[in-house]
Amino acid sequence: MLRDIVVVGAGLAGMRAAETLRQHGYDGTLTVVGDERHAPYHRPPLSKKLLSGQIQRAGIDLALQFDFDARVLRGASARKLDTSARTIDLDDDGTPLSLHYDGLVIATGATPRAWPGGAVPDGVLLLRTVDDCLAIRERLSARPRVVVVGGGFIGAEVAATCRTLGLDVTLIERGNGLLQSALGAEMAECWAKLHTQHGVDLRVGADVQAFVGDRRVEGVTLGDGSQVAADLVIVGLGVTPATDWLEGSGLRVDDGLVCDATGAVDGCDNVVAAGDIARWWHPRYERHLRIEHWDHAGRQGETAARTLLGSAAAYDGLPYFWSDQYDVKLQMLGVPTGYDAFTIVEGRPDDWDFTGAYGREGHTIAVLSTIPGRVQAYRDAIAQAAAFPPRPA
């Protein structure tokens, strides 16, 4: 019988876990630890509608699905985990605090990669939290020349938002294509065209070597020696799982906290993990996956909570995500990692009304579409590893 459960992390995964614990009958002490002072909120709008001002701060609050009684610590950061003593050391707004647990949900998410060159001038910013978003939005009101460093989803979405606001935008990606690590080479070229058609100065295969400006950024210097003027630089180099506080805990960390298919952390009883920090074994793909998507985080949180309560079941849901850029909604179902074939099964990319499929070893493993909701029509084909290419929906 668990009587003292602690959830470390007050994002979507942590809050869904807390709700599920109460929903499934847990009536012991429940403590939720969050390192931000804000009430829990949705992160996807930070690079889109909240950044553009289409919605305001209250519009991203996380609506709880179930009422639950819990002690909630805001502005409290986990510093150390002792799995033998079953204690968590916190920095509670500057005050040391130790919590005991007999059940633990780890959902501390991920942190953005800082600029690797050290100190940066004013005007070089990261985007991860609501405070980051509001700070950037305030600067956008001055109509700056914007440089976005990093061509992943955050970089691409921020660039699209800034162009929608009519700002001059340069998007710099050191790799061979925009969104290539997530979508593959074929779709990378497609999304590069989307941004250039909307007036983004896209630099692919370009390296930022340094920032121009002393106290305030004035531009960036590229690897070829050229410079791009900028009043605001937004760095989006991806994230790393927030596992530093787990050092010395004995838990297995390898690009995230390694878990089985139920969310149970390897080698430790009554400890589960969910969200961006968790690297789960996925039965369908037969590999460990760490997936940084909203839908996945919520479902993992629910599964991890049930596992902690003794009703473990493998989570084999197909990962799903979306990305809004200009008037195009990209949706992906499944995981294209390791694909060896790609084809368009519906429509034409030039019309921005199409569906594409990814295959591996003759089986369908993922589907991408710009047609709203269309990927769901291919759910069975992916789940059953149907022959590639799948039949058009």
From TrEMBL:
Keyword Cell division: no
Gene3D superfamilies: 3.30.390.30, FAD/NAD(P)-binding domain
Residues covered by the FAD/NAD(P)-binding domain: 4-301
Cofactor(s) named in the record: FAD
Record-level Gene Ontology MF annotations: oxidoreductase activity, acting on NAD(P)H
UniProt cross-references to Pfam families, sorted A to Z: Pyr_redox_2, Reductase_C
Matching PANTHER family: APOPTOSIS-INDUCING FACTOR 1, RIESKE DOMAIN-CONTAINING PROTEIN-RELATED
Annotated protein name in UniProt: Pyridine nucleotide-disulfide oxidoreductase
Species: Mycolicibacterium tusciae
Lineage: Bacteria, Bacillati, Actinomycetota, Actinomycetes, Mycobacteriales
